[in-house]
Amino acid sequence: MKPIQTAGVIGLGSLGVLYATLFTRALGKVQVPVLADGARIARYRKQGFWYNDAPCNFNYTDAAARTEPVDLLLFAVKFGGLQNAIETCRHLVGPDTLLISVLNGISSEEILGDAFGPEHVVWCVAERMAAKKEGNRVVCDPIGELAVASPPGRTPAASSGSPRFLTASASPMSYRRTSAPTCGASCCATPAATRPPWCSSAITARCRCPESPGIP
User: With contact defined as beta carbons under 8 Å apart, do 182 and 208 qualify?
Assistant: First the structure.
């Protein structure tokens, strides 16, 4: 797995701003393009963003103007915008690009796998953060973690490289490897017959399937 030197972020909701900030601190502004179409990038530049009362110095990048693939691409859009985000950034996914979704649903990883190949996708859930966005300002404390896993019987190449980046390159962001993917709140309302194969039939009140041993 090649070292991760560039990390793109698409979507600037509360989690998008959080991870764009952490990646920029770790890798430097130039190495972290915040991606969108040209019209949205113009709005981003005009309004700016704030994270915990500090202005964000992001590398706002028109995705169409960039030709070189990124090493890591994080999707932080709303679910309804995922397909548009995929098309906006399709040309930025190379043979070794890792993909992370922080949508926290039960299908975004499968959608990304269908679009780019499952070997690119890191299955994870963003959890234990308290992030709030009002207008262009995000407040987040604590920053939480990414729970990383692979579905039973599937070991994507991406899963072996991403944790090393999260711990070595993106401090203070942390990750936790689980025995199987955790699920978002939507999983509680999903009938057992239509849940993905990695989703346990025993959904806990804290919505982990299955519950990771040793996690309070």
Answer: yes
Tokens representing 53 are 């009362």
Residue 210, H or E segment: none
One-letter amino acid of 108: S
3-class secondary structure, 116: helix
Contacts of residue 93, Cβ cutoff 8 Å, sequence gap at least 6: 69, 70, 73, 99, 116, 120
Tokens (6 digits) for 213: 């041993």
Could you give phi then psi for residue 113, rounded to 5 degrees? -65, -40
Question: Cis ω on the peptide bond leading into residue 33 (within 30° of 0)?
Answer: no
The closest of 108, 102, 109 to 80, measured between CA atoms, is 108
Per-residue confidence in pLDDT tens, the chain, 216 aa: 678 999 999 999 999 999 999 999 999 999 999 999 999 999 999 999 999 999 999 999 999 999 999 999 999 999 999 999 999 999 999 999 999 999 976 689 999 999 999 999 988 888 888 889 999 999 999 988 888 876 666 655 444 455 555 544 444 444 455 444 444 433 333 344 444 443 433 333 333 333 333 333
Whether 34 contacts 12, CB under 8 Å: yes
